[in-house]
User: Fold this.
Amino acid sequence: MSAETVEPGREFEVDGVLAAARERTGLSDFGDDAFREPMVRLLDALENEAGLNAMGRAIQRERVVNILATRARIEDYYGRHPEIDDEHIGAPIVICGLPRTGTTMLHRVMAEDPEFDAALWYEVRFPAPFDGWTPGEPDARIPAAEEEVRMTTEGSPELMAIHPFSATAPDEEIMLLEQSFQSRVPESYCHLPKFSAWLDAQDQQPGYDYLLRSLKFLQWQHRQQGRARPRWVLKAPHHLDHMPRLFRILPDATVVQTHRDPVQSIPSICSLSYHLEKLGADEPDPHATGAHWSRAWARSLRRCLEYRAASKERDDRFLDIWYLDSVRDPVGTVRRIYEMLGRELQPIAEEKMKRHTEDNAREKRAPHAYSLEQFGLTEEGLAKEFVDYREKYILSREAE
Assistant:
């Protein structure tokens, strides 16, 4: 999976990345053309506004080439196995709240239930098997993912204190959305304000349509391996901004929305993104990171609030979880979620969840140090920016 040698200054040429993906796979069908304009705009942004160093340019070029190679492999699989399209993603649970509100912990705890299917990090990073994949045999994606995690955490050791990276643990489908070039993943690694503004103004339904295509493909892979399960548990804060699109592709989904005061979560989000930016830029601006993500996530929450307020029928699709409850008692929180869903937490699942929480206790990782001031933020500013959300979900709870 190593990147090919490219002449400096030509890493983000459109024809070049397409040619590299064709050479890597021997395939030329990248699927629906809806990916092309966002890809072209992303490449332009990486060239002209990201401020990447040589390593950053190489990393981001490889990421784009890998996405194109993945798309080509997915189309090849669908062509050879049209039954993939018959897979049905029925009634998933989708965990969704701001980043840094316990979504990863809750997702991984619920994924311990043998009744739930979940996508692992190596699968969302590399959703199409590499050449020569045989179900039941060692999967070459796993060592490739482990190497990427190693390089990422070695490049910025602070990241392990922020997020429990693991190549084989359940992770979020934001990287599946990335396969359409319609996600916030590039913004997490690079300062891309113009690209971000353009993407926010677009109808991102094609990205969600491709997400469904990718989930069907993963479910088909799991079926070949004998590990498909009746129901998925998914997770991505990105969906806050796109509830109509999420429910269009997954009409029977239930959203578990996690809640934590943005005055606490936003600087933590900024810290994660800032350390990712440092992997590819010499001097990222933490104040620019703070301004970008506070605006972006405030907009996401406003849109989610508007969607939920539109009708009681829509709001019935949501279950609300308080961050501190899930931190203090993750298994008890899952039990309450199950009760709201009319499910029973089986003893085998409960035991696995308890073991997971003990083995992955937050205290076993280094503390995450950050501050509002580091990112040019203030309590007053964030309280004003998130005023509607805080009034509905935070202040009333804190007053109890």
Summary: Residues 54-80 form the longest helix (27 residues). The longest strand covers residues 254-259. DSSP finds 20 helices and five strands in the chain. The chain has a mean pLDDT of 94.
